[in-house]
Each structure stands twice: as structure tokens, then as C-alpha cells.
Amino acid sequence: xxxxxxxxxxxxxxxxxxxxxxxxxxxxxxxxxxxxxxxxxxxxxxxxxxxxxxxxxxxxxxxxxxxxxxxxxxxxxxxxxxxxxxxxxxxxxxxxxxxxxxxxxxxxxxxxxxxxxxxxxxxxxxxxxxxxxxxxxxxxxxxxxxxxxxxxxxxxxxxxxxxxxxxxxxxxxxxxxxxxxxxxxxxxxxxxxxxxxxxxxxxxxxxxxxxxxxxxxxxxxxxxxxxxxxxxxxxxxxxxxxxxxxxxxxxxxxxxxxxxxxxxxxxxxxxxxxxxxxxxxxxx
Length: 284
Description:
With about 280 residues, the protein is of the alpha/beta class. It has helices at about 1-20, 35-45, 80-85, 95-105, 120-130, 135-155, 180-190, 205-210, 225-235, 245, 265-275; strands at about 30-35, 50-55, 70, 90, 110, 165-170, 175, 195, 215-220, 250.
């Protein structure tokens, strides 16, 4: 225990004497990301040269895999982080509070963020990280561009019919996209109706889906194999009275295309979903 305390004290002294923050601008020069969302945003802003390490879950873009790894999103290696001498650590919503306090006690600034729940929140997160990293102008340009792209996409589909959708995210228990989330906004921005759009809980019953009788069932199971999603598709297809089953409108979607909330990936996800929701339209 004494050896560990000595090590932490030694590293803290190094951090204090090295002064890695740019004295002229206050912009950090050595950043550690504790969240895939943060890592992807840093690359999106063109600030990847500042990033010295991230987590084992940070795999997008491909270059993120080559960064030094400091643990997972829920358990970081404190000693390794301190040895990297960062002047800023950007946390995620799953980062352990006690470990973040340990970093702060060792004179490391921690910028705490929460996973955004809406498209507007995604843009605000990008602007916040941009300000911290001296990339505010880039962040403003990116968010303005993607907001315009979303508006343009909505204009293309404004006269199309509005199908009812059940968007399944998990099985056992059955749960789906519900109210006030960026996933719900995918549906609304696609000119469709989410049968769970007024629900605060994501848990749903089979009977509820049957009663709502959606035109389309989308399946994007989080953290499971494609095989599991295909098995869920077969279960829905067996319910022959469902409109979605009758019309062969039960679709397995790629969760990696729609579950990574940066402004750019939100637009990519929307473009991916639009032809699935509106097969009558041309690819956006």
C-alpha cells in the first residue's frame, strides 16, 4: 500500500512540474478519453493529436484502436493514467466517480460529461468538447452543417406516408426505443410514428406490440450477435396476423450504424434508416 501511495505522489509531482497545458492558450496538450463517444468526437473535431489514450471500447474511427489503452469505460487503470501525465481527462457517463476524484486529487482536471439523449444534446456535447480543446470554431461548423443536413433530409420525405414502427433494442425482457432519446428522434425525423414514443419506460410487452400492430418492426439488438437478432426476426414473422409480418417488413438493422451519437454519425444513421423506413424513396 505504501508503494502505491509513493507512486501516486511521485507521478503527481511530475504532472505539477511538467506543466503540459499550453500556457499561452490554456488548451490541454495531453488528453485521456474515458468514453467511446468522447474519443469519436475528438477525432471528428480534428483534435486526435491531443489524445494520448482512450479505453478498450474506443474503436471508432480505426485510428482510435491504436491509442494507448487505460482500461474499460467502467474500470480505469489509475496508475497508468497518471504515468501518461495528462492535463485533461474527459469522462463518460459510466466512469466511476471515486476514480475520477482520485484523478482530481492528483491535480488532473476532469471534464465530466453525460451521454446525450437527443440530437440537440449531441450537438451541445460536441460544442462543449470543442471549447475545451480549442476547437470551438470547428465544432460550430460541424454542428451547423449536420443540422442543415437533417433539415434537408426531412424536406425530401415530407410528403411520404407515416408508418407505425416498433424499434426493438433487446429481448428478455423485450425493450425498445422509447420517449426522449436520440433513437426516438431517428424515427420522428424519418417521418414515422414510434408506438413507444409516449412511454418513459423502454420495457414493452408482446401483447402491446400486437395491439399496436406496427407497419414495420426494426431490430437492433445491443451487445449481441447478428444471429440473436435474426432469431428475434423469426419470432415476429411467426405472428402471421401482424401487419409487419404480412408485408415482410421485419428488418434487422446494424446497431453500429445507429448507436454512436456524434453529429456526423447521427446523420449517417438517419441516412441508413430512411430507406428501411421508407423503401419507396431513393437512397438519400
